[in-house]
Design a protein that fits this description.
Number of helices of chain B: 7
CATH architecture of one domain in chain B: 2-Layer Sandwich
Low-confidence stretches of chain B: 152-171, 187-191
Order of helices and strands of chain B: HEEEHEHHHEHEEHEEE
CATH class of chain A: Mainly Beta
Number of strands of chain B: 10
Helix content of chain B: 10-25%
CATH class of one domain in chain B: Alpha Beta
Strand content of chain A: over 45%
CATH architecture of chain A: 7 Propeller
Number of helices of chain A: 3
Mean pLDDT of chain A: 92
Strand order of the largest sheet of chain A: 1-28-27-26
Number of domains of chain A: 1
Helix content of chain A: under 10%
Oligomer: heterodimer
Low-confidence stretches of chain A: none
Strand order of the largest sheet of chain B: 6-7-5-10
CATH topology of chain A: Methylamine Dehydrogenase, Chain H
Shape of chain A: globular
Largest sheet of chain A: 4 strands, antiparallel
Number of strands of chain A: 28
Largest interface: A-B, 51 and 39 residues
CATH topology of one domain in chain B: Alpha-Beta Plaits
Mean pLDDT of chain B: 74
CATH superfamily of chain A: YVTN repeat-like/Quinoprotein amine dehydrogenase
Structural class of chain A: mainly beta
Distance between the termini of chain B: 65 Å
Radius of gyration of chain A: 19 Å
């Protein structure tokens, strides 16, 4: 496996994402610029300029025509993927920590930061892909997070629920139409921030990563914890791989502690766990800073990781990855 | 230099020179390969002829039409106007990573190969007795009790003698005594560390200590032989693990000698300790 290194950013990566066909990777970093890359050869397609603060999040709609970003300049922006043109800017009182499209691309969700005088909120806008620049300013939905601010959020299957991960380690299920809170479950250790929430391909379950060094597989329907993966380092990201039943966890020592330890102690590796047996099956090293985000190719052909070191590393899985089977799986296949 | 043309733009020099170079030749070979001969001028001004022999293989991949269409998009933003294909300033290929998943993977298995290498090295190394240079461990030497280890013959006795010799300034064979050895017995030297001098006479140097050892383990082991006044275990600043050597000081020298004799070759952790009297750091 020869990774392709993308060095288009000058500062730490905050999120990387594949488009639904898996041919383009979008990356955002603290250097204010969004980059689009061809995932196959690592060629940079273009950059999106306009933000004036660190970027925290990026997402692309199902047709790969619209791109949403959110950042520390208190704006959420909508871009045209093909040309890099800025279509729409929504302004807020605080920074945007997470953006995500609904599965049909008609709704766009944003998570706003909590700051003095402003509670953390989850806002939802209606998006009309036909209209281009002429998007609605009106909030379709606004959920106030009074107990603990939301750090991550996303739409479940059929955009039925909005699931949010909170700073206190809990996960909440909201109705995606009314914003009513159905359920709140303390999935992770108390006061251990949920750092990432990524969906399984069918969005019936998701994986959360947390600073408490664990990742959990949770059902979207009743927030039941299905599986738990424990590691020896705080986690920043977790992803579920299609095709093979694995999960990829990324993390490492907090960025602020990195200078006090040597690289071999930093644990800056992508960890592969078997999704069902919850057992670690391998690691991929390469970054020399913590991994801030891992994203899996929607067809399971590879994955990419964005690190605090400013690099995106794109990996294309080779045969060993696809061939690996547990004894019981092999027996099952031979029956 | 093309300054004679009245031009001031040095950047155009290169263009001028490339005109002098022969055109790139592409020769089609019979076996289906191509030979490309290209010329360029290196940074140091020398002309370089590059001959490449390549075989073209067309790999057809069927992709989604949407994907194919996106592949034809023109670049924008910072990439605007750049040629097709990855640019070397933003894209590079990393070193090969071997990733083969296996059940029960553990962090330690990664370093297993290194450990095995070391083991193999040990196997190849010849066992040599430090006393009689025989083919056995020093502890198993039949002359262990009668002879001192080679090269450190009578080290213990020597240490005792030193103060007397040094004290007799001008005596003996040599008339010159270096300043740091003068008046040793009186202990009024100008040594660093001032008047508080560690009593190294009863200090043992313990080597080949397991990296997982703790000071307390050593203290327990050595206090069997007498009162231990100090245990120093060298640790790695980064990892906090032991570096493999330690110093153990006894209150009494005879205890130290006993400990030295008994503990040399003692198996601790997975390693065999080597214990000897610490040498003075002169």
């Amino acid at each position: 496996m020869r990774p392709v290194l993308l060095s288009g950013h000058e500062r730490a990566l905050t999120q990387v994402k594949y488009n639904p066909d898996g041919d383009i990777i979008f990356s955002v970093s603290k250097d204010h610029v969004v980059c689009a890359w061809y995932s196959g050869n690592g060629e940079r397609l273009g950059t999106y300029h306009g933000h004036v603060g660190a970027l925290w999040s990026v997402d692309v709609d199902p047709t790969s025509t619209l791109l949403a970003t959110g950042g520390a300049d208190n704006t959420m922006r909508l871009w045209e993927v093909k040309t890099g043109k800025l279509l729409k800017t929504w302004e807020f009182a605080t920074s945007i920590k997470r953006v995500e499209f609904s599965p049909d691309g008609r709704l766009l969700l944003g998570v706003t930061e909590k700051r003095s005088g402003h509670l953390g909120t989850i806002v939802v806008y209606e998006i009309d892909p036909e209209k281009g620049e002429d998007q609605s300013d009106e909030q379709y939905l606004r959920i106030l997070c009074e107990e603990s601010k939301a750090t991550v959020a996303g739409f479940s299957y059929l955009a039925k629920y909005i699931i949010a991960g909170h700073e206190d380690g809990s996960v909440t299920q909201y109705d995606a139409k009314t914003g009513e809170e159905y359920k709140n479950v303390q999935v992770h250790e108390p006061d251990m921030m949920v750092t990432d929430l990524q969906w399984a391909p069918d969005r019936t379950y998701f994986i959360t990563a947390s600073k408490d060094k664990t990742a959990k597989l949770v059902s979207a329907f009743d927030l039941e914890i299905l599986k738990s993966y424990s590691t020896d380092t705080p986690l920043n990201s977790a992803a579920i791989t299609p095709v093979k039943d694995y999960v990829i966890l990324g993390g490492g020592q907090a960025a602020m502690d990195v200078t006090t330890t040597s690289a071999r102690q930093g644990k800056f590796e992508a960890r592969f766990y078997h999704k069902i047996f919850m057992e670690e099956i391998g690691r991929v090293r390469g970054h020399f800073g913590p991994l801030n985000y891992v994203a899996v190719h929607p067809k399971g052909e590879g994955y990419c990781s964005g690190g605090e070191d400013g690099y995106v590393r794109v990996h294309h899985f080779d045969k060993a990855y696809f061939d690996f089977k547990y004894e019981v799986e092999r027996e099952q296949a031979n029956l | 230099m093309s300054g004679t043309h009245g031009r001031t733009d040095w950047a155009e020099d290169d263009d001028d020179l490339t005109l002098d170079l022969p055109q790139t030749q592409i020769i089609k070979n019979k076996d289906g390969t191509e030979t490309i001969i290209s010329y360029k001028i290196r940074d140091d001004g020398k002309r370089v002829k590059t001959t490449q022999r390549i075989k073209r293989t067309v790999i057809k991949r069927t992709v989604n039409p949407r994907v194919a269409e996106r592949k034809t998009w023109s670049k924008f933003g910072a990439e605007k106007g750049k040629p097709v294909g990855p640019q070397s300033d933003t894209t590079s290929v990393g070193e090969n990573i071997v990733f083969s998943p296996r059940p029960g993977w553990k962090a330690s298995t990664e370093d297993k190969s290194e450990v095995e290498k070391k083991k193999a090295n040990l196997k190849d190394a010849k066992i040599k007795c430090r006393i009689c240079s025989g083919d056995h461990w020093t502890t198993k030497c039949p002359f262990k009790d009668t002879m001192a280890p080679e090269g450190e013959a009578g080290a213990a006795e020597l240490a005792d003698d030193v103060p007397e010799v040094a004290g007799a300034l001008g005596g003996g064979g040599s008339s010159y005594v270096p300043p740091h050895l003068r008046n040793r017995g009186a202990g009024t030297g100008e040594k660093m560390g001032g008047k508080y001098e560690r009593d190294d006479l009863a200090t043992l140097r313990v080597t080949n200590v397991s990296e997982f050892a703790e000071e307390n383990d050593l203290r327990d082991m050595f206090s069997r032989f007498g009162h231990v006044t100090r245990v120093f275990l060298a640790k790695d600043r980064d990892t906090g693990r032991a570096k493999g050597f330690a110093f153990v000081s006894f209150a009494d020298r005879t205890d130290a000698a006993k400990a030295c004799e008994k503990m040399d070759g003692y198996g601790f952790g997975h390693l065999i300790l080597r214990v000897e009297f610490a040498k003075k750091a002169t």
